[in-house]
Design brief:
Number of strands: 10
Order of helices and strands: HHHHHEEHEEHEEHEEEHEHHH
Strand content: 15-25%
Bound molecules: phenylalanine
Radius of gyration: 42 Å
Helix content: 40-55%
Structural class: alpha+beta
CATH topology of the largest domain: BirA Bifunctional Protein, domain 2
Number of domains: 2
CATH architecture of the largest domain: 2-Layer Sandwich
Oligomer: single chain
Length: 342
């Protein structure tokens, strides 16, 4: 083979090694690699000389080119790893970690005020032996009304503006159907609380079409209005504070007899009169009463062997009173500026 060709390969190799050695960074080194070993680099160009060689010289030439290529690659990787180590050392010197630097903070979520109030009520009542029940949001007319002694076409239905799903199903208008499910499926004595979303066609500064209730029911062998009042007074003191008074006003619910509306002395003005309690000193929190024997009849629970009381409170209302919120519509908005105050 012509010496000339061999010399040409040798000079490519020498100059490549010289350039590789003088590279200061991996980027510079890579550029040299492309220059010599790349697709249109010097070595690939040298391959073209093969065409002009006599046939018997071609294999030897091919072998030589491959040897040069392999050698250059070895040199390349060797130098590359040295430069990389140097670069890492330099980085370690210049970019020292400040271990005292605090991590980026990100906001943590927390319970919605409605669930905070719900959980607090559940925990207070559990200390009196009550345990939690839930029920479906879409109820049969029977559970929402009939079994609670509210017959079809009865004027008592007007007390609760109802969303009908179809002729025999409604979005439950209160949590009282949970009482019926419990009476049907469990054996007295019973102390249960039911809670969750309820729905009524109603919307203004103090009414939402979708709000939350909490319901209590106690069924035992001897249950009186005194037990009911004692239970609610205990609950109000635990929830709002020890100095609050509770009062019962005679009222009407088809599923309780006698029935009462529950007021507590206004926790904001302590009974003196303010805008929240409309200067009366009292705030209504819900309804209650002794379970109507008709309800026991529907649920096939023998009365008077078993007797009971029940009460139902609006959770948004309790939250408004407890936290002094001026508009019930803040609760479902999920404005973070409102929620972060709880
Ligand atoms: N379910 C009634 C309502 O939503 C409240 C209530 C519950 C009254 C239990 C008495 C007993 O208006």
């Amino acid at each position: 083979m012509e010496n000339n060709v061999q010399n040409q390969l040798k000079s490519i190799k020498d100059s490549a090694i010289k350039d590789f050695t003088k590279a200061q960074s991996t980027a510079e080194l890579y550029n040299f690699k492309v220059q010599y070993l790349g697709k249109s680099g010097a070595l690939t160009e040298a391959m073209k000389l093969m065409a002009a060689l006599p046939k018997e010289d071609k294999p030897l030439f091919g072998k030589l080119v491959n040897e040069v290529k392999a050698e250059l690659e070895t040199v390349y990787f060797d130098i590359e790893s040295k430069i990389k180590n140097k670069e890492i050392d330099a980085k370690m010197q210049n970019e020292k970690l400040d271990l005292s630097f605090s991590a980026a903070s990100f906001p943590l979520g927390h319970e919605h005020p409605i669930f905070k109030v719900t959980n607090e009520i559940v925990s207070i009542m559990s200390r009196l032996g009550y345990s939690l029940r839930t029920g479906p949001l879409i109820e049969k007319d029977y559970y929402n009304f009939e079994a609670l002694n509210i017959p079809p076409n009865h004027p008592a239905r007007d007390m609760q503006d109802t969303f009908f799903v179809d002729e025999s199903h409604v979005l439950r208008t209160h949590t009282s159907p949970i009482q019926i499910h419990s009476l049907e499926n469990e054996k007295p004595p019973l102390r249960i609380i039911g809670t969750g979303s309820v729905f009524r066609c109603d919307s203004d500064i103090s009414h939402l079409p979708n709000f939350h209730q909490i319901e209590g029911m106690c069924v035992d062998e001897k249950v009186s209005m005194a037990d009911l009042k004692g239970t609610i007074s205990f609950f109000v003191k635990e929830f709002f504070g020890p100095n609050l008074k509770t009062r019962f006003r005679p009222s009407f619910f088809p599923f309780t007899e006698p029935s009462a509306e529950v007021d507590c002395s206004c926790p904001i003005c302590k009974g003196k009169g303010c805008s929240l309690c409309k200067q009366s000193g009292w705030i209504e929190i819900g309804g209650c009463g002794l379970i109507n024997p008709k309800v026991f009849e529907f649920a096939k629970i023998p009365y008077p062997q078993w007797q009971g009381f029940a009460f139902g409170f609006g959770i948004e209302r309790m939250a408004i009173i407890k936290y002094g919120v001026d508009d019930i519509r803040h609760f479902p908005k999920n404005d973070i500026r409102f929620l972060n105050q709880f």
